[in-house]
Each structure stands twice: as C-alpha cells, then as structure tokens.
Amino acid sequence: MSLRYLTAGETHGPQLTAIIEGLPSNLTLDFEELNFQLQRRQKGHGRGRRMQIEKDTAEIVGGVRHGRTTGAPIALVVANNDWKHWTKVMNIEPIEGGDEEKRRVHRPRPGHADLNGGLKYNLKDLRNVLERSSARETAARVAIGAVARQLLAEFGIKVAGQVIRIGEIEAPANQLPVDELIARTEESPVRVVDKETEEKMMAHIDQVKAEGDSIGGIVECVIEGVPVGLGSHVQWDRKLDARIAQAVVSINAFKGCEIGIGFEAAGMRGFKVHDEILYTEELGYHRASNRAGGFEGGMTTGEQIVVRGVMKPIPTLYKPLRSVDIDTKEPFTAQVERSDSCAVPAASVVMEHVVTWEVARAFMEKFGGDSIDEIRANVASYLEQVKEY
Ligand SMILES: Cc1cc2nc3c(=O)[nH]c(=O)nc-3n(C[C@H](O)[C@H](O)[C@H](O)COP(=O)(O)O)c2cc1C
To answer: What is the CATH number of the domain that holds 283?
Structure first.
C-alpha cells in the first residue's frame, strides 16, 4: 500500500480534516512534536493578524491507540479558532438574509483562485472558492508531513529548511550540518542563518508592507540520511524528483522548483555540473560534490536531497489592483483586506513538510511493510545488499 492523504475543510469553517492511509502499525507518535511543527508554520516576520488568532494543534481522531499507530487510516483535525466568528456565514444549513449577511463575495481578487473557480464551478458567491483555495489548508499538510517526518526519523532521516531569498535580499550560501541548520533557522524570525541578512530581510518586509505591497522569495529544504534508490527511473510518475516538484508547486503561491543547482545548470559547462563517483571502504559509493541535489535518474543517490521553491508575492495587497465585479461587470479596485505581506518564512515550513511527505511515500514504496518492525527488517536487508554490491 502506497501512502496517500486527502484534506478537507474551509479557512473559516470549523476545522481542517485530514486522512492519511498506508502508515505502518507500531509507529510511536510524539504529539508535542507534531504540534511544534504546526506552530512553526504560524511564525515569521511579515504575517498578518490571523496567525495571532489561530494557535494550531492537531487532534488525532482515528488510527492511533496509546500513542502508537495501529495500521488503520489516521484521521486528524486542526480546529479553526476563528470559526466562532463565522458560524452563520459558514453554516452548512441555508441561512436567511441577503448578500450582506452571507458575506457574499462578488469581486474576484487578482492572483487568487476566485474568478477561475467561480467560472469553473458556476458559483456566484466567490466565497465558495476562496474558503477552500486559502493557504489555511497548508496547516493540514504540515500536520500530515509532520507524521511522515516522525516515520523517517525512525530511520535517521532528518529534514531542515531555510529561507534563501526575500524580495531583493539574498542570503549567502551555507553548507551547515542539518542539526545546526535546524537550530540556527529556528531562532530567526525570517528563518535565515546569517544575522546581517536577517536584519536586511526584516527591514525589507517592513518597507514593502508600509508601501501597501507584498513580497515573495525562495526557500530551500534539505533532507539528510535518505538511502540510495528511492524513486525509480522506469516510469515517469515514479521519478521522485518529479514528484517532489509537483508537491512543491502545489503549495499556494509556489511557482517553481529546483533540484540541486537547478536553473543555474543552464549556464554552466557539463564538467562543472556533474558529480564524480568515488568509492572508499568506509563510505562505499559516494559523490565528490552534490550539484544534482541528491537525484540522478529520478532516484536518490544517497547524498543530501536539496530542493528549492519560489514563492510569488502574496496577491492580497493593501495597495489594490484592478478587477471586475461579476454582478455588474464594472471595474473596481479591491478594498483593503487583512492579509500577510510576506509569508515566505512560513512557506519554508510548509515546503519542508510536503517534500518530507513525498520522501516518506517513496520510502514506503521501497520498503513496504505493514508494521514498523517489518520495515526495519526490510531496510536493514537492503542496506546490506547495497554494502555488498
Ligand atoms: C503560508 C502561506 C500563507 C499565505 N497567506 C496569504 C495571505 O495572507 N493573503 C493572500 O492573499 N495570499 C496568501 N497566500 C497565497 C495564496 O494562498 C495563493 O497565492 C492563492 O491561493 C492563489 O494560488 P496560486 O498563487 O498558487 O495560483 C499564502 C500562501 C502560503 C503558502
């Protein structure tokens, strides 16, 4: 059974709901760690007031007993604390009253799913689109990825993320060990290692916000300890680098993904791009460099996985853009709404978790097993085979 999940729920509805299927039995879950990951998503310089309203925690309502998975689907919910203010507007029963009371939305926002979703689903209240297309859904995906993260941690696989760029400010490159990267970025309100860059990024966000504008950036995720051979070259939809790229671009506002040196390779000579293969008794097969970001032929090489994602600036602006009212077909300029001005640090946490999920899915495909004990035996025998190769 391959790992899979579904999410449901609206941004102002009662809760987000997720069902995860395919996890093995006997995996001990650390609930505090799960909630810690959710709360990491809520931090970051540049976020709006909503994040002060929501203090996310995940409640597991199926598939876990006495702290351990049973092998049954895991059901988890993340409550929306803001729901109490929306019980009427978001009620599943019909409500009396006009547009005002229904808080009907008829003015599509540029850069959002509003207009396309309204046209596609033939919805004259764009709230039915925006409630689901909101990035609030990424809270569910962080919770799901946080469970996958605990599965991978059982096998010594570690995940870290960092912000590489916010608008015009770029962080200097670093190759810190994963544990140090985790510790250093956790202290930073913009999830960046270098203190000078941190100050510049925060000032840049403040300036952009003061101008009524928003800003995007680039985030990076590294995963260490992944064995060689996750994913496969034999079929397009089994290539793990490709699956990761899909997962990254599925995050709200993410418009591109790079593996390893990515787009930079276009301007470089082959001699400087490819990673030479070495062998020693101690390390076995390994690479002299890791420009490929841990992938060749859609399979992991055993080196660190390095993935970057680019996030566009937040589309809701204090300085409005032109749009057209779907009732009158007349132009209007959007009214000011509550919004983040920069969500790149939070998005870095989201990216860590969607990439982690894809690695865990490929891990389960390779090592199968209905219990963690069975997987452990499968991993050990495979690693022995690789060592003897
Ligand atoms: C963590 C996170 C927070 C976000 N917060 C906002 C926000 O406050 N306001 C906003 O307009 N867009 C926000 N977005 C982006 C929109 O959800 C996204 O641009 C929109 O749904 C349209 O999807 P697309 O940009 O992928 O095409 C956020 C994205 C992420 C990942």
So the answer is: 3.60.150.10
